[in-house]
Amino acid sequence: MAERVTLQTIADRVGVSRATVSYAFSRPDQLSEELRARILRVAGELGYAGPNPTARSLRLGRAGALGLIFTETLPYAFADPYSIGFLQGLAVAAEEAAVGLLILQQPPGVQRPEIVRNAVVDAFCVFSLPDGHATLDAVLARRLPTVFVDEPYVPGLPFIGIDELAAAGEVVRHVVDLGHRRLGLALVGLHQDGRHGWADLRRQRSAEYEAMRTRVEGYRVAGEQAGVDWASVPVYEVAGNARESGREAGRALLARDPRPTAILCNTDVMALGVLDAAAEAGLKVPEDLSVVGFSDSGAEEADLTTIRQPKQLIGQTAGRMLLSGLPPEPERLILPHELIVRGSTARAPLPS
Amino acid sequence: MAERVTLQTIADRVGVSRATVSYAFSRPDQLSEELRARILRVAGELGYAGPNPTARSLRLGRAGALGLIFTETLPYAFADPYSIGFLQGLAVAAEEAAVGLLILQQPPGVQRPEIVRNAVVDAFCVFSLPDGHATLDAVLARRLPTVFVDEPYVPGLPFIGIDELAAAGEVVRHVVDLGHRRLGLALVGLHQDGRHGWADLRRQRSAEYEAMRTRVEGYRVAGEQAGVDWASVPVYEVAGNARESGREAGRALLARDPRPTAILCNTDVMALGVLDAAAEAGLKVPEDLSVVGFSDSGAEEADLTTIRQPKQLIGQTAGRMLLSGLPPEPERLILPHELIVRGSTARAPLPS
DNA sequence: GGTTCCTCCTTAATCAATTAAGACCTTAAT
DNA sequence: ATTAAGGTCTTAATTGATTAAGGAGGAACC
């Protein structure tokens, strides 16, 4: 029907130049009060929607948005308390800078580099990208300020995360100090192939998610330093970070003979599932079995020993870095973690 | 340092027209393989970031993003399972259409209409907006396809939600059928003023959040139909949808004399807090006290009777409507809810 | 009376692309 | 030989704004 209303439409109708109309919206001091009122009145009559944001962005050279790249579909990402915590932190920074947060999903399987190529943003935050993902190149090609969170760490590119190796080591030393020698691992998110089952050393080392791979490596190194024969430690891997997956892993581990006295998990959600499996098997935690999580997301209510990862702080720091106006430092920024000892770990039961 | 690299830079360097370079990126069939290879090579050498998305958006007239307006800060919104479920649904639709999701926070207190004015999006989804919020005008001024979710319903504008009045009525009839006559209400999100305390009838009726107001009205109407003297029903309101708030409300309600035998909550998170308060007071649920939630978010694990609100479906439907290319129907779309009876409600205890 | 200053508005360049239509050349068909 | 048809590239209009620089006119000052 009616053709598009632009600044020019209004200018023609009022009988002034386009520039004047622009000033009426953005710089009231540049024209008389009377003319400005007339322009705004006509704009209202014509149903003008205000200066077109896309055209504005083009002219001003800023998009007013921060791009967040998830490699999971959102339904999955938002099922994870860790992701949500991170997102909350990022959102704080976005709000401070009065920019929007453009969420870009790179669903696993289908490659959609055009989503990254076409994103109208001023900066990118890349969240937990597996090794060799095509998105890496697509993002770097945009040559915008970019920060990688948790994984991967690419030397020379800005990165924020925790010291996964040290954190995992603390977990192992904690249970070893409590006398545990028969450990079991319940791990999620090592590979993209969706496999559930036992993961041998080769599979542990070839994990595609760097943070998880490092975490596992940290368990191993600390375990071997404490004299644990790592080749004999059962490792059960699952694909989705869900309580039900943790239960499955817990069942498998608890069915082993000898049964582990401590099960280490690489997320809290997994640990909750392991607790379920322990309850099913009639095992008391921590008397019969110690369980450790990772991330401190929802772990408090379950009285779970875990590593506290400053998820909000990570998000906020990433956001502030990107929105400060300065190019982000191309360095590896390590934020502090903390072992939180709660009621899910105790001295190992005496060998029966 | 080096000035910006655009299509023109490459065109000049290769010695062709800008159009040719554009075709090299977007329509390979429009030029010879050999020239295209040369153009791409030069583009690579110059560090060209690919066709500028903003310019592209302007020319093509599409932004490639769906704007989601939250009136809470994200940290708060993401603390609520209902919001997350809705977001998941919306994200499914966004992924289907291969567009991004631009999250626009309109924090309470500060008015930031410019965030809405400057958002580079093709459509808006407005989530749970309180009455009289300035964002309403800012969004309508953009004249983009827009859907309102949950509240407010503005006749003539597209809306998606459930039949709050009927749902609340079902809750009341459920407990009344179980013999309860002494009800108590623990409500969150009626007003923006942050008050915690008893809410009289006037305050109930003046709630600024339409969905919550309607929900309360539904409780009242069904209660009075069942012969409950509504003026004597204690209503405790809190500001933040947190378990701790629910606990506070629960404590207050359970300290009343006579003590309610059934407490109705307008969110599940509140109900969880009421369960905490009941446990503190040494009351058994459901023997001594029946508790009902709302939304079915995290209610299953707590074995909570609640209303199931199809949150994912609401999000998905909203997203599909907006991204279908057709203008959304300016109608009130009511999706089905369901009363889920679980173990938190039982027959009223005999008067002691 | 001339200069200066201020207010109010216009001119025109600029941001970085897309794409229909047309030009030019080569090859094939009649 | 003439026409037609492709293939390859260019021309130029278009998308909707922002803003530095400049001009016209009137008031104030010396």
Automatic annotation (TrEMBL), chains A, B:
UniProt domain HTH lacI-type: residue ranges: 5-60
The organism's place on the tree of life at top rank: Bacteria
Matches recorded under SMART domains: HTH_LACI
Name the record gives this protein: DNA-binding LacI/PurR family transcriptional regulator
InterPro entries, per the entry: HTH_LacI (IPR000843), LacI/GalR-like_sensor (IPR046335), Lambda_DNA-bd_dom_sf (IPR010982), Peripla_BP_I (IPR028082)
GO MF annotations in UniProt: DNA-binding transcription factor activity; transcription cis-regulatory region binding
Organism name: Nonomuraea dietziae
Gene3D superfamilies cross-referenced by the UniProt entry: 3.40.50.2300, lambda repressor-like DNA-binding domains (1.10.260.40)
